[in-house]
């Protein structure tokens, strides 16, 4: 199957909305201020590995526990729905704890490669080929790395209002994606 530029862009934008690295900048800045240093290379590499491993063995894990991809996609659409509501309304449904070190936990996992990202990866498998998804993951991890490497610049460039606006815009996009995944897997 030939790669489609349109599909690569679609997958990349879906993952970009779910990973929400720009919307996560305030949380990452807060973590950095608490722990001191974040290692962009290590964080990006660990998140990339988590995503690739889950892309290839996630469905086997689901099969082992007796779940099909459609059921997982429906459950995932609900998770994405609540993530989108968090972004749009500025409320927290999920509570995270702060560990001593931040490059791997909580930034690589679960902030970047968390449940929403993993759900999305498996859901994307039902619509797109693996090569397209891998390219989308790679492009997003390159962007994650660039954002982590340039946190100070992004903070100054966007300012608090700019970050809030971007977070809400991507929240609406993510909400639409959640509805589409739900409809596509329920058959409405």
Which SSEs are present, and which pair or pack?
Blueprint: H1 5-19, H2 25-35, H3 40-64, H4 69-89, H5 103-112, H6 115-125, H7 130-149, H8 151-186
Helix pairs in contact: 1-6, 1-7, 2-8, 3-5, 3-6, 3-7, 4-6, 4-8
Report the C-alpha radius of gyration, rounded: 16 Å
Strand content: under 5%
Largest sheet: none
Assign a percent range to the helix content: over 70%
Assembly form of the protein: single chain
The coarse overall form would be globular
**How far apart are the termini?**
28 Å
> Structural class of the helices, strands and pairings?
mainly alpha
Overall number of strands: 0
Q: Are there runs of 5+ residues with pLDDT below 50, and where?
A: none
What does this structure look like?
With 188 residues, the protein is an all-alpha fold. Helix content is 79%, strand content 0%. It is built from 8 helices and no strands. The protein is globular and about 45 Å long.
């Amino acid at each position: 199957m030939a790669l489609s530029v349109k599909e690569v862009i679609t997958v990349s934008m879906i993952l970009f909305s779910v990973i929400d690295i720009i919307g996560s900048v305030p949380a990452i800045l807060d973590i950095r201020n608490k722990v001191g240093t974040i290692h962009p290379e290590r964080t990006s590499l660990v998140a990339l590995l988590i995503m690739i491993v889950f892309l290839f063995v996630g469905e086997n894990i689901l099969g082992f526990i007796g779940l099909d991809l459609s059921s997982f996609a429906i459950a995932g659409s609900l998770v994405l729905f609540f993530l989108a509501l968090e972004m749009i309304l500025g409320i927290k449904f999920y509570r995270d704890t702060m560990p001593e070190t931040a490059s791997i936990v909580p930034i690589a996992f679960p902030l970047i490669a968390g449940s929403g990202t993993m759900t999305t990866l498996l859901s994307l498998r039902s619509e797109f080929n693996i090569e397209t998804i891998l390219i989308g993951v790679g492009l997003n991890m390159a962007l994650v790395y660039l954002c982590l490497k340039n946190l100070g610049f992004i903070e100054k460039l966007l300012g608090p209002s700019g970050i809030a606006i971007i977070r809400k815009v991507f929240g609406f996009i993510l909400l639409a994606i959640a509805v589409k995944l739900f409809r596509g897997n329920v058959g409405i």
